C-alpha cells in the first residue's frame, strides 16, 4: 500500500500517508520498507535538531535492508558516509558490500573512487582496474555476485562496519 500511495497507483497520490505503511513493512523486516524509511530519515533529518537520535535509526534501517541483499541500501549508506569528513572510508565499506552482491553501480563507483583518489579511497590504478574487471564479469553474467570480493579487491586497512 505504501508504494501505491507514494506513486498514486490506483489511489490518489499521498506520500505522507504512505510513510506509516513503509514503516510497518520496515518493522516487520521488509527490506524495501527498511530502505525507504532509512533513506527518508537520512535525507530529511540531516539538519534536524534531533538528528543525533534520528540518523542512527536511518542507518540501522539501511544496514538491515543491506543485510537482506538490498544493494541500494549499501549505495545509500556509501554516499551518506562519503560526505562525512572523518567517515569516508566507512562509505567504501558499504559500497564494497553492495559490490559483493553484484551491484554494478557500486562496483563502478569504487572503480572511479580509486581511479581518482576521492571519497576516502587513495589513488590506486590497480585497485580501480580490479573493479573494472568485476564490472566486465558482471556485464557477461548479470546474476554474478562476488562473495570473495574482499580477497579479489581488498579495501585498504581502515574502519570496519
Topology:
Blueprint: H1 2-7, H2 15-27, H3 31-44, H4 51-67, H5 71-82, H6 88-100, H7 104-116, H8 125-140, H9 149-152
Keywords for this structure?
mainly alpha, 67% helix, 9 helices
Description:
The protein is 67% helix and 0% strand. 39% of the residues are buried. The radius of gyration is 17 Å and the shape is globular. With 161 residues, it is mostly helical.
* Nearest-integer average pLDDT: 90
- Low-confidence stretches are none
Instruction: Using the alpha-carbon principal axes, give the shape.
Output: globular
Write down the Rg. Answer: 17 Å
Largest sheet: none
Share of β-strand residues: under 5%
Quaternary organization = single chain
- The run of helices and strands is HHHHHHHHH
* Terminal Cα span: 33 Å
Question: What structural category do the secondary elements indicate?
Answer: mainly alpha
Helical run tally? 9
Helical content class: 55-70%
What's the β-strand tally?
0
